[in-house]
Structures are given as C-alpha cells and as structure tokens.
Specification:
By secondary structure, the protein is mainly α. It contains three helices and two strands; from the N terminus they run αααββ. Strand 1 and strand 2 form a beta hairpin.
Length: 62
C-alpha cells in the first residue's frame, strides 16, 4: 500500500493538471498494452516511464 501511495504522490506532483478521469484512462490503456508490453508485476518505474511528457498532449496521456 505504501508503494501505491508513493506512486500516487509522484503522479500528482509531476502531472497536477491531469483529471482523475485522465489518470483512469491512462491505466486502462496501460493494461491494454498501449504503452508497451510488460511481464508480471508492473512497478512504479514502468508506470512513470509510460507517463513521460512525450506521452502527454494537452495535459492528457495519449
């Protein structure tokens, strides 16, 4: 649970302009493989790398 809270804090700090619906859309797309394939457990580094500025347009992950 601590890792989840830390990740949530990182996302809030780095992307304060994102709405909750945009974050949910990002995680949906992440699970569907839009940001690359992952194996086993998804860690915070994988998630924050997928959230990279190049994957955001107009404040929303693409």
């Amino acid at each position: 649970m601590d890792r989840q809270r830390e990740l949530a804090g990182l996302i809030r700090t780095e992307y304060p302009f994102l709405k909750a619906s945009e974050v949910l859309l990002f995680f949906h797309r992440l699970k569907c493989g839009r940001y690359g394939r992952f194996y086993g457990v998804v860690d915070a580094l994988f998630i924050t790398s997928a959230f990279a500025p190049s994957s955001c347009t107009n404040g929303a992950p693409t």
